[in-house]
Write a structure and sequence with these properties.
Blueprint lengths: L8 E6 L18 E3 L6 E3 L16 E3 L5 E7 L5 H9 L3 E5 L2 E7 L8 E8 L2 E18 L6 E7 L2 E5 L21 E5 L2 E2 L3 E9 L3 E3 L10 E3 L4 E9 L4 H7 L4 E8 L8 E13 L11 E8 L9 E5 L10
Antiparallel strand pairs: 1-8, 2-5, 3-4, 5-10, 6-7, 7-21, 8-9, 9-10, 9-11, 9-14, 12-13, 12-18, 14-17, 15-16, 17-20, 18-19, 19-20, 19-21
Length: 323
């Protein structure tokens, strides 16, 4: 019998440190796609002088080090979102009171949590990925009849295959609050950009393996590097307003907002970047139809504010997220 993707189960748990697998409070997220890392590849050993059949065929290689990337595509779900933001930005701060809790996350923290991710592919066939650190998040935003998606990329410390999940309790599954693409707007300087067609948002932690001389074939841990927060914006050409902003290198506050239809005021996801710069790509004319123009954008910190403050309002207390 062929195994089906619909039967696959993925779950994750926060680790106490970079090297110890999670032991409790595992969470099962909804997801669209799951791509585990490949096994270490083979690297040729260019040794000379051995006894060989011929001088051109490959010789015995050595295995590369463990590590690699694990990718997931998940719905933009206000209930799960604080988990992803905690992994990408560090622990959040909770405010408000039930039922209208507010979770706030800021960029620039020195450390990020490590997580254990497990996947059940079939009965007796389980993958375990330890010491995972969320390296990047990508979120495209446009008006269409579909649920918004986050694309997640983890760097992993090591992985292997087992016959069962790790021992440990799973957290209760909460009612989902998925946001559809058509619920998005974006503001520049506090004013809604009326001619915005689509935008992308991305966080990159620029992580790298920390390879100590530890006598094994996997990193000691995954270290975060310098954070990059950027994306693109495509606008319907109406005038030169944003091109003038780009030409003058004039920073502005960029604020994409996605809301849930049940309560747009108290169920939302807001990305607040107080200092953002645009780079116009030029209004390309490709035919007799309408003209669009694309801008790259990149955000930065100031002496009083981080690059990004992300706010989630979802009616769920911080205890669920472990911070």
């Amino acid at each position: 019998m062929r195994n089906l993707g619909r039967a696959v189960i993925v779950r994750f748990g926060y680790q106490a440190d970079a090297v110890t697998p999670a032991t409790a409070d595992f969470v099962r997220p909804p997801f669209y796609g799951f791509t585990p890392p490949a096994d270490p590849g083979l690297q040729q050993d260019p040794v000379l002088g051995g006894v060989l059949h011929n001088s051109r065929d490959a010789t015995e290689g050595t295995r590369e080090l463990q590590g690699g990337q694990l990718r997931m595509s998940v719905p933009l779900d206000l209930i799960m979102l604080p988990h992803w933001l905690r992994m990408a930005l560090g622990a959040g701060v909770s405010s408000g009171a039930g039922p209208n809790y507010v979770h706030t996350f800021t960029s620039g923290k020195a450390t990020l949590p490590s997580v254990t991710i497990e996947a059940k592919f079939a009965s007796g066939d389980f993958g375990r990925y330890e010491g995972c650190v969320l390296n990047s998040i990508s979120l495209p935003m446009r008006k269409e009849a579909a649920v918004s998606r986050l694309d997640l990329t983890f760097l992993i410390r090591k992985h292997d295959y087992y016959g069962a999940f790790l021992a440990g309790a799973e957290a209760a599954t909460l009612t989902r609050q998925k946001i559809v693409q058509s619920r998005g707007i974006a503001k520049w300087g506090g004013v809604t950009i009326s001619n915005l067609l689509d935008t992308t948002f991305g966080i990159s932690n620029n992580c790298e393996p920390y390879n100590t001389m530890s006598g094994d074939d996997f990193p000691l841990e995954i270290d975060p590097g310098f954070t990059t927060i950027n994306g693109t914006a495509r606008l319907r050409l109406q005038d030169s307003t944003f091109r003038t902003i780009s030409k003058g290198n004039t920073p502005g506050a960029f604020n994409p907002i996605l809301t849930h239809a049940s309560d747009p005021t108290n169920r939302l996801f807001s990305l607040n970047m107080p200092v953002t710069r645009l780079t116009a790509q030029g209004p390309g004319v490709d035919g007799p139809g309408g003209i669009d123009e694309t801008f790259n954008w990149e955000s930065e910190q100031t002496d009083v504010a981080p690059t990004l403050t992300a706010v989630v309002k979802n009616g769920t207390a911080a205890a669920v997220y472990g911070y």
